[in-house]
Amino acid sequence: MFELEAICGRARAGKLKTPHGKVETPCFMPVATKAVVKTLTPEEVREVGARALISNAFHLHLRPGAKFIEQMGGIHQFMGWGGTIFTDSGGFQLIRSGFELKVRDSGIRYKNANTGAIEELSPEKCVEIQAALGSDVAMALDDCPRFGTGREGVLESTRRTVAWARRAADARKESGQLFFGIVQGGLDEKLRKDCADALVSLDFDGYGIGGLSIGESRDEMLKALRWSAECLPAAKPRYLMGVGSAAELLNSIAEGVDIFDSAFPTRNARHWTIMTSAGNYSLSRAEHASVKEPLEEGCVCPTCRNYSRAYLHHLCKENDMLGMRLASLHNLFFVEWLVAEAREAILRKRFPEFRDHFLSGLPQKTETGEEE
Amino acid sequence: MFELEAICGRARAGKLKTPHGKVETPCFMPVATKAVVKTLTPEEVREVGARALISNAFHLHLRPGAKFIEQMGGIHQFMGWGGTIFTDSGGFQLIRSGFELKVRDSGIRYKNANTGAIEELSPEKCVEIQAALGSDVAMALDDCPRFGTGREGVLESTRRTVAWARRAADARKESGQLFFGIVQGGLDEKLRKDCADALVSLDFDGYGIGGLSIGESRDEMLKALRWSAECLPAAKPRYLMGVGSAAELLNSIAEGVDIFDSAFPTRNARHWTIMTSAGNYSLSRAEHASVKEPLEEGCVCPTCRNYSRAYLHHLCKENDMLGMRLASLHNLFFVEWLVAEAREAILRKRFPEFRDHFLSGLPQKTETGEEE
Questions:
Q1: Which chain B residue has its CA at the smallest distance from A321's CA?
Q2: Domain limits, chain B
């Protein structure tokens, strides 16, 4: 299911085999929360190099409904993506978006905005939803503490995450669908390790590492990542959830992460932030108005091959959707190119040099997350 | 410059030769007001069959500026469209959008929203702007009366339109750019004919027919169109401005119109109105939620070849930009297909049968314009 091809330091190159094809790792998954990578067709997403997407079980459950998508032939058929699809449980989005009313041991209570009803997302329900969606990789429901939660709260959410993972593992039916647990534990070494150990004992097909890049510093993130990763089995894939900035990708690959996802490249694009090897910039700035060169010199993405920065700046000023599309293509291409280059460097046992060289071209930052 | 290939009744098939290629007529031009067909790339616009676009001189003058676009290599280079580009003068949009402060004989006074300055768009300025943009076909500035204007007002605007056309013709410099006058005259037979006659005496390369499909009935529109068209020389192309619904296209082709433009197919699409041979429908309606078939059965557009109506309904419910793109592609394909079929029917001398058959499949309406 997961084949490790090369190791360079702690960095790994591998292949994840899923019911919808092999995914070379390290890999980056564009976010298709509602069964669409905003502004882009599946064909375009594939063209910029993505082989796996992540969608959101909770959002699709709300609308149009998991059973409905099952009747439509499953999520791949429904959205027209023939490659690998991960589904996140939705716990993170539920809590982040203010949907949730209360997290209890039984599950997450929320108000369904479409119907007004009070409902509960339980670990078992989450398994059921993802089975109906037919994703290649399902994630166990986790309880992700908000950044800044005290030790007691993190302890509680970690305990709950493990209990939910166990219930999810019990509820899971045999199928080709892979199933990943999610390591929580905040920024606490013991909790991270305890959580990882407990999940490993449940023998998941792979492991998500959650609760990071939500406000902590880069140093804190890397420590928590390391504590999590060093307890995980080498033979299983590791998926750092919600990370998509260039520096964090490379630093996390160095810690042995195989899989990433983030809405940042596409969300940034819709807000006119362009990702490049020299750091991000805002296309709205007047200095780009008459630049005949592309978004990034030397870039061979579909946008840079065809459009000047001046034209894209014009589309930005008009807040035009074509501009958001073209910026999304560029940013995704950039991130997919970056992880592909990292993979090549690992295979050639030159990852540290590649990373150092690349990072030296980026502005120095200490916080996690993306500027927008 | 314009070659008439076939006539069937009053319907005509021809070829318009411009500095950026030949355009087979009847033709329909997607609207790229601000040098972009909203949501779509030039490549996609070409793929659905368009060979000419119309952009707006006034809007581009406001931002990013005609001189700027000239410095960027002209409008074709700037927006990446290698085919024919018409530019409308902008008088219609200026008046329609409430930009204008006062229409005087010297020109249209307006407040520049970007700078706050009071400026005037004169016939001469309009020629200058379009020359700088480098469009293939420029339109003379016209004074288009609002629907419901009394006879005195229509008389005044028609007189002004002719006077402005004369000044524009005088101001025009020799170049490869073609130059069209615009026939006004409201719904008045004498004014339509007088205006057309006066413009013909100025010997434009072609003639726009303006001020129609703005609220009058279909019968009124066709009468005013006929009065205009019968005064125009057979050897010059005729362009009915702002018409893009299926029935009006076919009825106007029957009156001898060669060229059309309208924002309706793309604007409808962004508001989830789908155009088909059986009439328009709103994709937002619940009855489309679980339809596995495409937007229109038998349609071979890029959207219908790849996506179910159920998925597009889902994108509609999420108000997703990919959905707007895919609906735009479908609607443009539909209109381009329709005028191409009309052309074939004219060449085969079977246009009346084609039109009657097609119209019999559409819901009957008496008003002009599109449902949304």
A1: B39
A2: 2-269
**Would you list the DSSP string of A260-275?**
EE-SHHHHHHHTTEEP
Find the Cα–Cα–Cα–Cα dihedral A243, A245, A250, A252, rounded to 10°: -20
User: What are the tokens at B119?
Assistant: 């400026």
Q: What is this model's ipTM?
A: 0.95
A80 in contact with B, Cβ within 8 Å: yes
Classify strands B281-282 and B273-274 as parallel, antiparallel or unpaired. antiparallel
For chain B, give the mean pLDDT: 95
Cα atoms in the 13 Å half-sphere on the side-chain side of A337: 18
**Is A188 part of the annotated catalytic residue set?**
no
Q: Kindly compute the dihedral angle of the four CA atoms of residues A83, B48, B325, A303, in this order, to the nearest 10 degrees.
A: 70
Which is nearest to B158 in space by CA: B138, B188, B127? B188
What are the E-state strand segments in chain A? 2-8, 11-18, 21-25, 27-29, 52-56, 84-88, 100-104, 107-111, 118-121, 137-139, 178-183, 206-209, 238-240, 259-261, 273-274, 281-282
DSSP structure string for A214-274 = SSSBHHHHHHHHHHHHTTS-TTS-EEETT--SHHHHHHHHHTT--EEE-SHHHHHHHTTEE
Q: Which residue type sits at A32?
A: A
DSSP-assigned letters across all residues of B189-251: HHHHHHHHHHHHHTT-SEEEE-S-SSSSBHHHHHHHHHHHHTTS-TTS-EEETT--SHHHHHH
Q: List all residues of chain B from 19 to 58 with a beta carbon under 8 Å from chain A.
A: 34-41
Q: 258-287 in A: which are within 8 Å (CB) of B?
A: none
Residue B6: beta bridge partners? B13
A2-269 belongs to which homologous superfamily? Queuine tRNA-ribosyltransferase-like (3.20.20.105)
CB within 8 Å: B314 and A37: no
Residue range A107-162, pLDDT digits in tens: 999 988 888 899 999 999 999 999 999 999 999 999 998 888 999 999 999 999 99
A176 Cβ partners below 8 Å, 6+ apart?
A19, A136
Residues of chain A with pLDDT > 70, as a percent, come to 99
Residue B364 CB neighbours (<10 A) = 9
The distance of B64 to chain A (nearest Cα, Å) reads 7
Tokens for B165, please give them. 């056309």
pLDDT per residue as tens digits for the range A24-37: 999 999 999 999 99
Catalytic status, residue B170: no
pLDDT in tens, B261-291: 999 999 999 999 999 999 999 999 999 999 9
pTM (2 d.p.): 0.96
